[in-house]
Amino acid sequence: MTELPLSGIKVIDFTGVQAGPACTQMLAWYGADVLKVERPGGGDVTRKQLRDIPDVDALYFTMLNSNKRSLAIDTKSPEGLEVMEKLIRDADVLVENFAPGALDRMGLSWETLQKWNPRLIFGSVKGFNDDSTWNDLKVYENVAQCAGGAASTTGFWDGPPTVSGAALGDSNTGMHLLIGILTALIQRDKTGKGQKVSASMQDAVLNLCRVKLRDQQRLEAVGYLEEYPQYPHGEFGDTVPRGGNAGGGGQPGWVLKCKGWETDPNAYIYFTIQEQNWVRTAEAIGHPEWAEDPAYNTAKARQDKIFEIFGEIEKWLADKTKYEAVDILRKWEVPCAPVMSMKELANDPSLRKSGSIVEVDQKGRGSFLTVGSPVKFSAFQPEIKGAPLLGEHTDEVLAGLGYDADQIEDFHRKKIVVGS
Ligand code: COA
């Protein structure tokens, strides 16, 4: 088998919930030796959250911690801290996403880590960055979506700020941190030195709301945003409004009803009117006369009647399922897709073929579905395995650090560690 790109990289995964684990899971998929360090009393909270089978690690945990090993140890005990020191002295990367100050309170400040191992790359996720006036806050997904601009710009104008179903605050921040850690590893090759890499959830959400900051400046300059449904018939205030399902610029789009929408909540497609494809689009939807009609044949001309046009397209869609509609529209090069339910995605043969959704065997559970690597490589294919049981590797890790059998037994007796 091809050697994986990150093989030989030792990662201490001192993370929990989603943001940190998503980052370290990907390091593990790509070959790093990722050791998850967990509290003896239950481990990562997601092991028990939203369980679907009694006494079996929840999918929340198994879907974010595959390919890792687990050491369950009380790092607040002197013995636990000594184990952490040994691990850190030998590690390449330590990742954490505890509440602000938790690591310092444990005696693992960045200064201490650097002293122990100047080559260490220390990856840290917090809700807000160090300069924020909110840098003391504990933060979960939706808090970050609200703080980072996603919620104020998502949803409909006559409804409240709305969060996305995508984990823009959690997994997205983990991916940002991952980019930072890999960058720091490359820099370490040049300088020999480690560094601290921080990613805040607010910053990571904001990074994905870049186009909304663009729109804020455009709004301030001209007083309106022509690609938003509020234009030209509605009102604009002084901040970027919620635009429903509007597409951007010269490529307006909307979610349109297809056959069966009355009973199926996902019988819709997203339809884009691509400016350069107008002639074919008009033909595709049964209005060839619009192709050359000056009342329709430019984006500007269509703007004030865009919802009437979408209404006409819905009439055309009324006797077509979302799949049939896309099959027709693809021939006319209309950018479109069916609105896919999670059930449809779970059963989609092409996502299985590509390894984007994989079936994994998990101790105590049997097989379950998880999302595989969204990045595809020509030189290797990551193999997604199960997640570790709590403390599954405790004894093997302690033995590897030089503790003898009596000492390990003593740790168990004092309940400093658990094994499975
Ligand atoms: N042994 C002993 N103690 C341990 C331990 C171990 N192996 N692992 C963790 N702990 C301790 C921590 O040191 C902390 O102790 P302290 O509060 O006395 O200092 C305690 O367990 C709980 O830490 P934490 O999980 O951070 O607190 P929480 O459950 O109250 O908060 C979050 C959870 C997610 C809100 C918080 O961790 C946070 O804001 N993290 C940063 C942002 C983030 O990643 N959010 C989640 C995105 S998915």
UniProtKB/TrEMBL annotation:
Pathway: Metabolic intermediate degradation; oxalate degradation; CO(2) and formate from oxalate: step 1/2. Its EC number is 2.8.3.16. Gene3D superfamilies: Crotonobetainyl-coa:carnitine coa-transferase, domain 1 (3.40.50.10540), formyl-coa transferase, domain 3 (3.30.1540.10). Keywords: Transferase. It catalyses: formyl-CoA + oxalate = oxalyl-CoA + formate. CoA binds at residues 39, 97-99, 105, 138-141, 274-276. One of its GO terms (biological process) is oxalate catabolic process. The keyword Transferase applies. The active site is at 170 (nucleophile). It is an enzyme of class 2 (transferase). InterPro entries: CoA-transferase_III_domain (IPR050483), CoA-Trfase_fam_III (IPR003673), CoA-Trfase_III_dom3_sf (IPR044855), CoA-Trfase_III_dom_1_sf (IPR023606), Formyl_CoA_transfer (IPR017659). GO terms for molecular function: formyl-CoA transferase activity. Substrate binds at residues 249-251. Coiled coil: none annotated. Homodimer. Involved in the catabolism of oxalate and in the adapatation to low pH via the induction of the oxalate-dependent acid tolerance response (ATR). Catalyzes the transfer of the CoA moiety from formyl-CoA to oxalate. Belongs to the CoA-transferase III family. Frc subfamily. This is Formyl-CoA:oxalate CoA-transferase. It comes from Mycolicibacterium smegmatis (strain ATCC 700084 / mc(2)155) (Mycobacterium smegmatis).
